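Target chain:
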Amino acid sequence: MVSTYCLTPKTHLEIPTIVVFLLKKLSPFHFHHCKFYSHHSLPFLRTSSLHVKAIKDGSFQNLDVANHLLNVYVKSKNLNHACKLFDEMPHRDVRTWTILVSTFAHVGSNGAALELFKNMQNEGIKPNQFTLSSVLKCCSSLSELKIGKGVHGWILRNGVVFDVILENALFYFYVKCEDFGSAKWLFESMEEKNSVTWNIMIGAYLDTGNVDKAVDLFRRQGLKDVSVWNTIINGLMRNGFERIALKLLYEMVKDGTLFNEVTFSIALVLVSLLKDLELGKRIHGRVLLLGIHVDGFLRNSLIDMYCKCGEMKMALKVFEKMDTYFGRNENSIEEVISWSSIISGLVLNGEFEDAFKTFTSMVHKDIDIDAFSITSIVSACASFGVLELGRQVHGLVQKMGHKLDAHLGSSLIDMYAKCGNLDDAERIFKQTNDMNVVLWTSMVYSYALHGRGREAVQLFEFSMSRGLLPNEVTFIGVLTACSHAGLVEEGCRYFRLMKEVYGIKPGVEHFTRMVDLYGRAGRFKEIKKFIDENGIHHLRAVWRSFLSSCRLHRDIEMAEWVSENLLRCKTLDARPYVLLSNIYAIKQRWEEVETVRRLMQSRGVKKHPCQSWIQIRNQVHAFIMDDRSHPQKNEICAYLYKLIGRLRKIGYSSDAKLVMQDVEKKQGEGEMLLGFHSEKLATAYGIISTASQTPIRIMKNLRICDDCHNFMKYTSQLLDKEIIVRDIHRFHHFKHGCCSCGDYW
């Protein structure tokens, strides 16, 4: 009867009273029935009762019984009681020691496992293959090459017969300790190789970036099981060979190897990298057909794939069916990852409001909020520029007791800086007190964003003097700082330093920052030379930056030459067309303005509407040009009209021709339309909604125009009020009639 019950699968084991009663009646001879419980998590009280029973009836003296009890304790995760039982055992054999050694190895207590192994040898107990496999696993985890080699020597000296498990454990040990010479020798000398063996060797080559060797070894293998396919495809992805990985995935299908859950997850990651939505949908269909969509790990892979392919509707559909398929498995790893993934996806796709709502729902439902969810929502606050919400999230982080590590600290620094509060960004930076390149890079970039280029450069120099190795992102930050502050010579020196000293290959953003650096200073000849020397004629971002500089210096001839190089690419990006149109408008060449607009129409290029927004009392108010949709539109427009009249008295004048940059209106209507640019409407609303000494923070999705820039300077002077504007490139701090950019933007 006991054996029959033991064979019945249970998701949660409940032992009937009759079974417990029968166990009490069993003699020591029948105690082997306890073996079943060593494969399940037996409730602690029941385990203890078995222990007490064994002591009372004397069966504890039987080594086989004691070993079974020890196994029950460790499988029930009662390690403290297992150790206590181990110490109380009058006799111990190789199985006794192996149970405890393998358990400590399994839970990651590698040092304790090695200490036990040492004591085992001191007691004269000879380890078996399983003991030695566990010990080698510990050596692998700790990268203890010397100890592992000692174990290998002991095996050879004592004539222990290698089975494939022990041989694989030794092989994996050498690979993990990066002793590839010994690993290759062992691999070639192994008479019996199973799929684990091949996986280890292929994985070793992939981990060291030797893709050709890994693929060659994969081809050499005869019969390949699913795990080997998974290893090679995943490894190729990690090394940046997505197309070859996709080719092998199709080859796997042709080979007839059945996908498992891991294969499907790897395939979905590959789809995410390739942004191949149609393939992703086909894989999703196959998952549904096989009925394995209920796997939590696979479901999260589907959510991640749809998010990264920009298909948020499908991602949310999979996410919303979570409770239908699985019920509410509160705070399981799968559930937490699902919430984190959907929030991250919403942020990635710019759906910030939905991300905030989802995060709020996560908090209300008492879902465990992991660091990944926090950094995602902090990133959303940074991108959207909502300071008050960012502060609330920061407060939640402190309340939850999350450690302010480098990753979270850099996210908070970035958030405060991008929300216009550089003081709090500096405070977070000082609190961390960590020489981590991510943190220091965040602070360097924050200074650059706010136009404090010299402070960014000083911080960068100080970090290098402290031995901190800058990465490619650090150099983007310091080059941006030099560009915004007009530090041309310093920027050129850092660009050379990046290549020649730190061996960092310049990317698109580095080249663009250098062109911007030269361009802001009006050094167009140097830009041409820089583009030729670096062979970057194909980079649109570089030409776009060059064209922006032409607009800044109102150089039409150069702008036309740059435009020829840029527009021949037939880009659908509206920015270069708008820039060229702006330049013509400044020079009042209206026919050319119209020509550019017709070109945009013929190519189907659409300009993104200019939008500005401001947060007042936890609510975001967005405005577009000539916006009449706000509930307080009459009050806003009346105040703005009155404000412009007062500004004219102290020297402000509207530049009516600038309106032709953005709208197709008659020139006579220009001055009126300038008064209703989105940032002016947001400013007016901010003034009438806040106290006189409260700074106004305005976010804008495009570059601030010259007229609005002048308007902000005069307004800050007239009202003695600080106005902070974040446009697409940088922050402008307007105070006492001056801007932090020094009119250099």
In short: The longest strand covers residues 611-616. Residues 230 and 263 are 6 Å apart (CA to CA). Confidence is low (pLDDT under 50) at residues 1-47, 659-671. Residues 633-649 form the longest helix (17 residues).
